[in-house]
Amino acid sequence: MSKGKSKILFLLLGDVVALYLSLFLALAIRYGSLFFEAFTDFHAWPFSIVFVLWIAVFYIAGLYNLRHLRNGFDFQKNLALTLGVNALIAVSFFYLIPVFGIAPKRNLFIFLLVFAVVQFYWRRFFNRSAASGEAPNKIFLVGNGETAEEIYRTIASNPQMGYEVVKWEKEEEVNQTINNLKSLVKEHRVNLVVVPRHLKKNERLSKKLYELLSVGIEIRDLPNFYELIFQKIPLSDLEETWFLEHLAHGRERFYDQLKRGGEFLFASILGLILLPLELLIAVFIKISSPGPVIYRQKRVGKNGREFTLYKFRTMKLDAEKDGPKWSKLNDGRSTKIGHLLRFTHLDELPQLLNILKGELSFVGPRPERPEFVARLREEIAHYDIRHLIKPGITGWAQINHRHEASVEDTGEKLQYDIYYLKNRSPVLDMSIILKTFKNLFVDPS
Q1: Which of 333, 360, 334 shows the shortest CA–CA distance to 349?
Q2: Contact assessment for residue 318 and residue 307, using Cβ atoms and an 8 Å cutoff
Q3: pLDDT at site 445
Q4: What is the DSSP letter of 393?
């Protein structure tokens, strides 16, 4: 297990301890020496269910992302908002859905106060401890350009991640230090060497790296380490061979086929449940502005095949009189009801039909219009690789990058799309769906 994962596991266990310790303290305040009987007889089972939901909310809010765990106003604000959401969840479950057999008023109030204090100081302690002391991972970094610079800058400003770049050399400089590589590693107590992929083809360097590997030094290539830190793929440092090694076997994964069956069932159920809401939205669109209720638009899907995407119309009829344009936040072409639909993402409900037809998934790279794809193919290297799998309503790029659209933004999003292509799994899909719900309420776009 990596040092980063060990830290996250330790943080998770600490949160569980803080939850139960706060409950014990609240019951001790309320019942004195009889607190343990009160816990086992009435509170253990219902509060344990609530705690599982709370941990899920912590995860959705990013409270287990090491890059965000720095003591400061932003972290304190995020923690306070998360505690507020969790308090509403607890109140809802105990009072609006009274299935637990208890309705703790004073007990719940005391627990919320105690936990807020315990959690605040526990998290401050963890953040300070994670950022202080000697970094367990000491890196010898080799590389030129933006990728190496971004790695160096991010590690330097996030000591809580557990990494420290003790030496950074440009590619042209490493030829001068090859013969002294072992002594350099020993001098700086390096336990991780990060080098560009193409330098591994250098016979002299690869021999020296093999010698380091045999004495327990970890060797990673630049794209692999960048992926670990940023959870995206650095396109500027990739060759065609990288795609052949990591994506060629993934065209028809078993998970992709399993996912199709589950999505068809879930989309059918969700479509029936939301049908009254969709009919209401259709009425509001019809009476608020002239034009069709459903907007049809060509998009590029799996293997480059075009399909018709369905959405509730949110723009005026003459929105594209000057040709296709990327949509943007607070788009002046939107109708009044369209602003609300786009803000809440309710305009995308008709895409359940695309899922039923097998053209779209719940999770995957967001499909683009053919007019934009033709341009992006020319301007962004490896752009077409995102068409290896079915596109989605939401995706890894959508939850990690801002909404504004441009060629530069699309290049950034492509790095996240390729990360998803390489790492897609049920766990990652569930993570994307949960974080999408967070963005709907915290950072709508």
Answers
A1: 360
A2: no
A3: 41
A4: E
Which residues on neighbouring strands pair with residue 154, listed in sequence order?
Answer: none
The pair of structure tokens assigned to 377 is 């193919």
| Residues 6 or more apart whose Cβ sits within 8 Å of residue 428 | 396, 420
Q: Rounded to an integer, what distance in angstroms lies between the CA atom of residue 241 and that of residue 223?
A: 13
CA distance 284 to 292: 12
How is 222-239 classified by DSSP, letter by letter? HHHHHHHHHSS--GGG--
β-partners of residue 300 are: 306
Question: 43: which DSSP letter?
Answer: I
The answer to whether the beta carbons of residues 223 and 243 sit under 8 Å apart is: no
CA-wise closest residue to 420 among 392, 378, 442: 392
334 φ, ψ (degrees, to nearest 5)? -75, 150
pTM recorded for the entire structure: 0.79
How do beta strands 294-300 and 306-312 pair? Answer: antiparallel
**Separation between Cα atoms, residue 65 and residue 85, nearest integer Å:** 19
Helix 3-31 to helix 44-60 angle (10° resolution) is: 140
Q: Is the pLDDT of residue 419 over 90?
A: yes
C-beta of residue 105 within 8 angstroms of C-beta of residue 98? no
How far apart CA 263 and CA 267 sit, in angstroms, is 6
Cβ contact 363:443 at 8 Å: no
pLDDT value at residue 282: 93
Measured CA to CA, the distance from residue 106 to residue 104 in angstroms comes to: 6
| HEC per residue, 234-260 | CHHHCCHHHHHHHCHHHCCCHHHHHHH
Residue 421 burial by Cβ neighbours in a 10 Å radius (0-12, 13-18, 19+) = buried
Residue listed under structure tokens 């638009």: 297
Of 140-144, 165-169, 229-233, 427-431, the least confident: 427-431
Residue appearing with tokens 């590029």 = 300
Predicted confidence (pLDDT) per residue in 11-41, tens digit = 999 999 999 999 999 999 988 888 888 888 8
In this structure, is the dihedral angle defined by the CA atoms of residues 378, 384, 386 and 390, taken in order, positive or negative? positive
Give yes or no for a contact between 65 and 230, defined as CB atoms under 8 angstroms apart: no
The owner of tokens 């999408």 is 436
* Angstrom distance (rounded) from CA 101 to CA 361: 40
